[in-house]
Amino acid sequence: MITFIVGVALLLAGYFIYGRYVERTFNPDPMRPTPAETLRDGIDYVPMPKWKNAIIQLLNIAGTGPIFGPILGALYGPVGFIWIVLGNIFAGAVHDYMIGMISIRNNGAHLPELTSTYLGKNWKHLVNLFATLLLLLVGTVFVISPASLLQAILPGTIPLKILIIAIFIYYIISTILPIDKALGKVYPWFGAILIISTLAIGVRMLMGAGGAQMQELTLASFSYQHPNNISIFPGLFFTISCGALSGFHATQTPMISRTMRTETEGRFTFYGMMIAEGVIAMIWLAVSLAIYDKIELANTIAQGTPSLVVNEVSVLLLGQTIGTLAIIGVIVLPLSSGLSAFRALRNILADYFNIPQDTLAKILMVTLPLYVVSFFLTFIDFNIIWRYFTWANQVTAVIALLVATRYLYLKSRNYLMTFIPAIFMLFACVIYIMTAEEGFHFPPSTLVYGIGIAISVAMIVGYWISGQKQKAALTPDDPLLQR
To answer: Do 175 and 342 form a contact (C-beta atoms < 8 A)?
Structure first.
């Protein structure tokens, strides 16, 4: 219990202390017009209240990531608490805030456009490919997971594919509506269900309901053996992403950058909602460790993906009726994030191919093919999709952190706050790609780690040299310095 309470307290302190420092470093201007006002179009650029933007942002970035990720991360033991707390405060929340604010300064641009502006036009095509891959995988994951949860609580036996089709129909209808109608009207209610159900599970866990025995972080936790003998590094950092550091968030924050009324809302909306997601992740990691031992947890996951754990935990701690409501709260997350993933992907591809989204026909021309591709992806095993999602997710996080680093470097501000986590996660990505089953699958060894360090250093040196050249070419009145 002490580990959990201290961890949550540190997350909250991080918002007020480090979050304020990050905000001062960026230096938001309360008088500067935002894209919501200067580019208002009634569809994607629509001013909305601060509280509504914050709830939408939380639901956009969360999905099942801060639930499924910690459930899977519990297989590594209590050491996951460290990654959630430190990763969230010093990497994930900084990542979300910086990309959100840089997007505001660039007319609500998405990550591919920001990459083109700050890293060079050649990067735009690669990042656009990664963003498309990531969002397709995210959207598909967030169709399958709520469908699986719904199937478990609905009476009778409804085929999974029928539920998947129903979710796609909901997505199609919502994607073509203006953002204040599609998200602004229903998300506050979704947010209330999510927050209440998550807090209820957390409180019942602290009370020891269902025989929950909370595990503490000790030195022995670092030798905790994953049931499949997967090493903590880099496995843990890809298993728990949402809640700690997630590149998916870099594809979502620009949507809210297009609806914010003032830059000073950024710390609460971007940094603060990432902290909130970290609290959700802490609760689900703690409850997974408290209810199961690692063998039971691994077997339960194998029988029905992490959704089965959600069902068992919710009913065990809250009873059948209230537990079902809690499961509905969990279902809200992937439904909202899946919808937002497809909406963001539509915007990214429309920007990339220069297709204005000012008529229904043009919106559908971009949207419908995405759903067709995603539907066929639902026939692939969920665990395979999840593994590739985590891989693409953290590579995207590295790219976003490097964009933020270049922005701060060009403006002569403290770029280390984004550069240090970028270097760490770049090395983790290189090692993961070299050793993971969905990568080159080399056995972990001193040689592999040495090669990984060499590759990472070479990439960072190339990045640093290009940044120096870019900064040397700037003039005092260069538009990049005015953003």
So the answer is: yes
d(CA 171, CA 167): 6
Kindly report the pTM of this predicted structure: 0.91
Exposure of 258 in the CB half-sphere (CA atoms within 13 A) = 22
**All structural domains of the chain with their residue ranges:** 2-397
Range 2-397: architecture per CATH: Up-down Bundle (1.20)
422 contacts 94 by C-beta, under 8 angstroms: no
CA 53/CA 66 separation, integer angstroms: 20
Q: What tokens does 463 get?
A: 């990045």
Rounded CA separation 98/306 (Å): 31
Q: Give the number of residues written for the chain.
A: 483
Residue 193 burial class via C-beta count within 10 angstroms: exposed 0-12, middle 13-18, buried 19 and up: middle
Q: Where are the beta strands (DSSP E) in 92-250?
A: none
Enter the tokens of residue 419: 């550069």
Q: Which two tokens stand for residue 2?
A: 């002490």
> Model confidence over 41-99: pLDDT tens digits?
888 899 999 999 998 899 888 877 889 899 999 999 999 999 999 999 999 999 999 99
Can you read off the two tokens belonging to residue 208? 């020891």
CA–CA gap between residue 182 and residue 121 (Å, rounded): 33
Rounded CA-CA distance 379/10 in Å is 41
Give, to the nearest 10 degrees, the angle between helix 273-291 and helix 2-16: 170
Q: What is the DSSP string of 168-195?
A: HHHHHHHHTS-HHHHTTTTHHHHHHHHH
Kindly state the tokens that stand for 288.
């997974």
How many beta carbons lie within 10 A of that of residue 264, not counting itself?
Answer: 16
